[in-house]
Structures are given as structure tokens and as C-alpha cells.
Amino acid sequence: MMKKYIVLILISSFFGMLGGGFYQKLFKGVNITFAPSTDAPFSRVGYTNSTFESADFVKASSVATPTVVFIKTVSNTQNQRTNEIWDFWDFFGQRGPSYSSGSGVIISKDGYIVTNNHVIKDADKIDVILNNNKRTFSAKLIGADPNTDLALIKIDAKELQAIVFGNSDNLKTGEWVLAVGNPFNLTSTVTAGIVSAKGRNIAVNQNAQFPIESFIQTDAAINPGNSGGALVNLNGELVGINTAIQSQTGSYVGYGFAIPVNMVAKIVKDLIDFGDVQKGFTGMEVKDIDAETASKRNVNNGVIINDVYEDGPAAKAGLKNDDIITKVDNKLMDSKSVYEEQLSYHRPGDNVKINYIHDGKEGSTEFKLMNKEANKAITQKYTVSSTQLGADFKPITAAEKSKLGINAGVKVVNIKSGALRQMNIPEGFVIYKLNNKSYTDPADLIRDLEKVSGRIVIEGFSSDGGKATYSFFTY
Q1: Which residues pair with 364 in a beta bridge?
Q2: What is the DSSP letter of 348?
Q3: Which residue numbers are catalytic?
Q4: Where are the beta strands (DSSP E) in 47-95?
Q5: CATH number for the domain formed by residue range(s) 284-375
Q6: What number is the average pLDDT over the span 293-303?
Q7: Residue 474 confidence (pLDDT) above 90
């Protein structure tokens, strides 16, 4: 029987398959308009009003469609072999440029446009075609963020029709939304659906260093070419940037995913102000709570801390391994993806309030987030990364040794794509032995894992303390 596979697809280019005011004060003169209902956590000052007395598909479409652009890119980067056509041209040493396409959304009258990073990645030339008059502009890249798969480009134009930013926090499951984009070169296409879910993590962005995924899921038809296009509510207000589909065929089968506009707004502001994203770090790692833990500890929501770095902000604030975080800035934490989304609204130096449960007792604390350099300095004391294995490795603490009853061990964290994911090694797994050899130094374990062949037996402990053994053959 033929096996069925679910493919997660970044919905950028049809042609690529062929081969070859944000509040005026905050945005420093970039006039981005917000809906009057917008009270997102990153906003603290006044904004330009925009009102609609009634809403329907026609009105939403007429408002949003002129703000969505068609993006074409050209890349002269040598393509990897994908079919016999490329092999034929490679035989003669002549491999032409690759062409790609996608969508973008005008967010300011003076030409700022938000799209997906994967739409413009590695592009040597970016062209933007306006919806209303089909004028073509050459765009320059302002900045990109692989962690959220967002990018900001700009064209030299004035008095453009810009979209109004809504509030994705106010978006409800079951609410009608429209997707506007350019699928399969069908420009200015509008499809309708509902919000199917929020806070989805589909692991589509695994190659990023610090991937953040808290997608809005919708059943509005989204296809290749929709990437970077608008997801809007029935007022025509932007609530998300369409980014990915989940499909067995590579085309729409009912599941599309969009980056929430509140996250988009913060990323865009950082790219305008700094050219890159200002990410704040807590100095701890969390994971989702499974049903068994929720029942055992009598909690209905939250994320559980599975790692606290010494000398980090969270540790200094008194947070411990196995504490359950129930709220961040008074927002309930339903999942790790929601936790990461909430932190994404902050910059280094911002205060973050954490409500937590420790040994059955509720508590709260507040601390300042550190920057990337400080986080790297702390984690490098303990963590070693392996691109080949697709994960980070760190020695276990004395408390963990005592809890597990062992005198050695290396913990696996931040599992992305690579060998460990293929082996189904879970996040937070403590490797006690590899082929009957114990390890305390992550570098030693990585070296042996990367070069081992034949039969592999990994013994260790899952994050809940249960013993587990994984056995494989490699060639």
C-alpha cells in the first residue's frame, strides 16, 4: 500500500517550480494606520482612526485587494539539481537564473511592503507590480527575519493605498476571513474561509536559529503564490500574513497558515528602526504540558520549564526547572507557541511579568529580558550545537543527576531538522549511554554520534524521568 505523507510547504513561488500610523510616534514618520479597536500589547500611543459601518465580503475585498501586490524575483544563485532539465544545462555549464513569485502587502503610503522572507530570499532582483494600475517598481530589501519568515521591502512611490492593521489578539476561532494574493500567477485573487485555530506550530521553520511559530490556521483557499499576501477580517483589516499550507499534494486541501498581524507589526517596526529584529531572551527553555502532567499537577493551561540557565534573568528571578508558567504579561499560556508569540512582542531590556506554579503554589515575578549576545554567552557555557544532528546538547545539572539516579548524561534541546528528529528522539531527552558508553561532555557525545555507523543503541531518560532505549542501524 502506498504510504501517505503530509508535506509542509512554504507557499511562495509558482514560477520557482519552473526553475529558471504602526503608531506614528513609534514608527518615526512611517504612517501606518491601525483600526480603532487595536489595543495590541506592543502599542502604547495614539493612532489614526479608520471606521466601517458595516462589513461583508464585497466591502472587505474592495478595501484589501488594492493593497496587495504581486512580487517577482530573480536569483542568479546556482540552483541545486532538481530534474533532468537542470542536469542537461549543467552538462554544458550553463545554468540560468531562477525566477520566483509571491505576494506582498502595502503597509504605508510611501512604499513599505511586508512579505515572507522565503519569497525574497537570495533574490538579486525584486520587482513589485501594483494591483490597481499594474505599474512595476524595483524594490530594495529593508530587512528580513528568518525566525518568523517575515521580510520588509520598499519601493520608491508616494500616495499608495495602504492596508489598515487590525488586532490578531481579538481574532476568534470561527470568524470569517479573506485571503488575498496571487496564487499560480492569478493576480488579485480573493478566497474566503474561517479562522480554524490559533497558536499553531507546524514546525515549518525548523532551519531558523530561533524559530517562532504561532500561526493563525484558516480554511480560506491558499496556494503557491499566496505567500506574503494578506489575511483580512470582514472590515478589510490585516490580521495575518499568509505563509504556509499543509498538504499531501502541494496545493490547497483545507489548511493554510498566517503569521498574526500583531507579531508582524513588531517585526516590521524593528526592521525599520534597526534593520534586524530585537529579540529578548529569558534564559530558560519551556515545553508544552502533556495530558498526564496536566492531570497529575491539576493544571488546565500553561507551559512547563524544562531548562533554566544559571546567571540568566529567569534564574535570578527565582524560576526553577519544572515550574509551570501560567501567564506572561497577564495573558494565559495555552501552548509553547503562544508563549513564544507573547515574548516576541518584547525587546531586550523590556520587563516581562511571569505567573507560575512552584510545588503547587502560585507565584509571580518580573524581570528584564537580555539581548542575543548575553543569551549566547550564557548558553555557550553549557550548550554545544550540531548542524548534522539538528539539535543542541548540554550537560545535565547536579539536581538532574540526583533526580534520575545517574552520574553522567547529556540533555538534547532545540531539536530541529536532522538525524535526531529522524530518530524520533524527544525534546529534553537525556542521553545516558551511546552503545554502552556514558557521557558527561556534549562535545564528546556529538563527535561519536556524528561518526558512528552500524548498530546504534541510545539509552536515556525522557523529560518526565521515564527510561527509554532507541536502537538504529546506520550505513
Answers
A1: 355
A2: T
A3: 118, 149, 227
A4: 68-75
A5: 2.30.42.10
A6: 89
A7: no
